[in-house]
Amino acid sequence: MSAARGEPLLRLEGVSKRFVKSLDLAERVARRFGSDVQEEVVHAVESVDLEIAEGEVLGLVGESGCGKSTLGRVVAGIHPASEGRLTYRGKDITRAAGAEAKKASLKIQMIFQDPFASLNPRLRVAEIVGEAPLFHGLVRRSELAGYVDQVLASVGLDASYRRRYPHQFSGGQRQRIGIARALAVKPEFLVCDESVAALDVSIQAQVLNLFMDLRERFDLTYLFISHDLGVVEHLSDRVAIMYLGRIVEVAPTEELFAGANHPYAQALLAEVPRIDSRRRIFKPVEGEIPSPIDPPPGCAFHPRCPHAFERCRLERPLLKEVAPGRYAACHLNDRS
Ligand code: SF4
């Protein structure tokens, strides 16, 4: 589906990611003795088509276990895609090697949910932030100290913090160190995976404002992954909704929040905690999310969908344009 404006910076075509769950010892022994026990395949991401324009913020939302973090890691080059194609500035980066892979890996950086777990506790801030730009030859050793100070200042951290270790900081400050580490290699595209979820609400707002400030200052593009629709509504240009490994709806943020097309998106939106009611509890959509090891046939949402009909149980709906710039995967759109 088309990005909101201009040629896409990043394009995903039919991207899938599957993980094979290996047999344990007992299962391997059982197989040797004739049991037909098989390795299980987790369908984490299935046939995702997506485009993100330069400078855009695309929010990616869905319940826990829907595959959104895996998709973020495929985009960031942490997991290789099992199938499909990723192009960045028109160049195929799916299986890029050598200099091309290095270039792509620097341009797309990931910011993780848990800033403490993602920072090496034995390294000082100066090493955490300065290691990658020095290794990749983006800065000379003689200029490194000044460069690190400059990057720290860009995320609102004082240069005097450079000799401290991660455990000496608050959660919000640690997340700023994580952001500084990503910025230090001069990225163009940030994949933020639940990057404010572990922070207090007041700190969340500060870090979200920092992301938007950095967007302006460094012309950044974002894939912003979150289970919190309120956060996504606040900062995204468009939103993609994911369910059991597939994108089920993509729309400009205002249009989606004014009225979602897909029944799953409608159910998620009905549960958004509104600031005006001060309701902060996120209620899950009714029913259990099915296993990605054995996804239901037809529309994967049909066991939970209040509008499901016969065709839904048999045929998988494709993501189609339902209005200019709006895409949804639901058979109801084919009914007159
Ligand atoms: Fe519901 Fe059918 Fe649409 Fe799936 S295709 S969301 S089951 S109506």
Quick overview of this protein structure:
The chain has 336 residues and is α/β, with parallel strands linked by helices. It is 31% helix and 23% strand.
Task: Tell me what you see in this structure.
Strand 7, helix 7 and strand 8 form a beta-alpha-beta unit. The chain is an alpha/beta fold and 336 residues long. It is built from 11 helices and 12 strands. The protein is globular and about 65 Å long. It has one domain: P-loop containing nucleotide triphosphate hydrolases (Rossmann fold, 3-Layer(aba) Sandwich). About 2% of the residues have low confidence. The strands form 2 sheets. An 8-stranded mixed beta sheet has the order 6-7-8-3-9-10-12-11, with helices on both faces. Helix 4 packs across helix 5 and helix 4 runs parallel beside helix 6. The site of iron/sulfur cluster has 13 residues, from loops.
CATH superfamily membership:
P-loop containing nucleotide triphosphate hydrolases
Say what the CATH topology is.
Answer: Rossmann fold
Per DSSP, the total helix count is: 11
Can you write the helix and strand succession as a string?
A: EHEEHEEHEHHHEHEHEEHHHEE
Strand content: 15-25%
